[in-house]
Design brief:
The protein is about 70% helix and about 0% strand. It has about 160 residues and is mainly α. It has one domain. Helix 1 runs parallel beside helix 2 and helix 4 crosses helix 5. The longest helix has about 35 residues.
């Protein structure tokens, strides 16, 4: 039992670290935030299909990324909550792998546009931001996430051991 807890904590920490590194990398190209964003780290939101440790890992990774990249406090809170909600939804749909990428897309399409409009006061309408954020999330979560899902599925017994 103790080893399983250590394993889950270790997996969560590794997922958080990878999320932070990917977000910092894509931030160098100015694609991790703003009205048009393709956060490649969001592809990791597919990981709850393999392990529940991905849920806290993704949340902490997003939280740390938002802090490190200089997001405003409300963005840190609500952006991280969007990732948490999406990760929980992915875990709930883990048996229907083709639906699993949808919860993070929807959560971010609903929450992030409100943050962009009311926290950052960006010019534009919420439907426009929903469209731009949604496109970025489809690229990150559905396209890249599905590729990641197929690759990791071959090695899941080695990478995501349960004990």
């Amino acid at each position: 039992m103790r080893n399983k807890k250590v394993l889950l904590i270790t997996q969560a920490a590794m997922i958080a670290a990878i999320y932070v590194v990917l977000t910092c990398f894509i931030s160098a190209f100015n694609l991790a935030s703003g009205a048009i964003q393709v956060r490649i780290s969001e592809a990791l939101t597919i990981l709850p299909v393999f392990t529940p440790a991905a849920i806290p890992g993704l949340f902490l990774g997003c939280l740390i990324s938002n802090l490190v990249t200089g997001c405003m406090p409300l963005d840190v809170v609500f952006g991280s909550l969007a990732t948490l909600i999406g990760a929980c939804g992915t875990y709930a749909l883990r048996k229907k792998k083709w639906l699993a990428p949808i919860p993070p897309i929807v959560a971010n399409m609903v929450i992030v546009p409100l943050v962009l409009r009311y926290v950052y006061m960006l010019e534009g309408s919420i439907p426009f931001f929903m469209l731009t954020v949604g496109i970025g999330e489809v690229i990150s979560c559905y396209v890249l996430g599905s590729i990641l899902l197929n690759v990791l599925n071959k090695y899941k017994t080695y990478i995501f051991r349960q004990s």
